[in-house]
Amino acid sequence: MFLLGRESETTMQSDGLSGYAEPAVAADAAAADGTTETWVTFQLDEQTYALHIWEVERIVRAVEVKPVPESPSHIRGVVNIQGRVLPVVDLRARFGQPTRDIGLDDHFIIANTSTTSVVLPADAALGSLEVSGGFVPHDDDERTRCLQKIVPVDGELIYALDLERVVFRDGSFSDRDFASVLAELEMT
Fold first, then answer.
1. Residue 151 near residue 160, CB atoms below 8 Å
2. Mean of the per-residue pLDDT values of the chain
3. Which H helix or E strand runs over 55?
4. Of 6, 77, 100, 101, whose CB neighbour count within 10 A is largest?
């Protein structure tokens, strides 16, 4: 189950009673051995992306983003979420796609890497999904390097993200420096 709280937060396929969201099950993606993973799905442009449910802290409505000078090109800025200053990672910029302004109808997915929390803007939060299988992509474009796998569900491809690669790219020196800055932001 996935807990979502306050009014400003988006519920995902809620049961309508407890505020919990039940994962949708993709019948055509069930594994022969019964092993499944639960993913939180969201939309960016016309594409569906996913993160492991354990990486997602919650989903809230978009708020104003404050720019941060000299940050990596895929970092839009920071937001204050209940007293926590969190970096906003622009997936469009990260994937080398044209960016757009964040609208009030957009959602922020607050997700946790092994070292920090980040905010991912999304056009829509779609819900949770239990899937199994999938395939590892072999293309060498920027988006593909950020994927764990691609999972076909109901005739659609869901791109399961590797959150560490999305945020920190390749672990280079500048990424480690950025990780230090993020850690300092979280302590303030």
1. yes
2. 75
3. none
4. 77
User: Can you tell me the distance from the alpha carbon of 93 to that of 188, in angstroms, rounded to the nearest whole number?
Assistant: 27
The boundaries of the domain holding residue 144 are 44-126+136-187
Sign of the Cα torsion 90, 96, 99, 105 reads negative
The whole-number pLDDT of residue 151 equals: 86
Inside any domain, residue 170: yes
Cα(83)–Cα(145) distance, integer angstroms:
33
* pTM for the whole structure: 0.73
Which burial class, exposed, middle or buried, applies to 109 when counting CB atoms under 10 A from its CB (0-12, 13-18, 19+)? buried
Strand partners, 173: none
CATH number of the domain enclosing 182? 2.40.50.180
State the Cα angle at 124 between 136 and 59, rounded to 5°: 90
CA pair distance 99, 81, nearest whole angstrom: 23
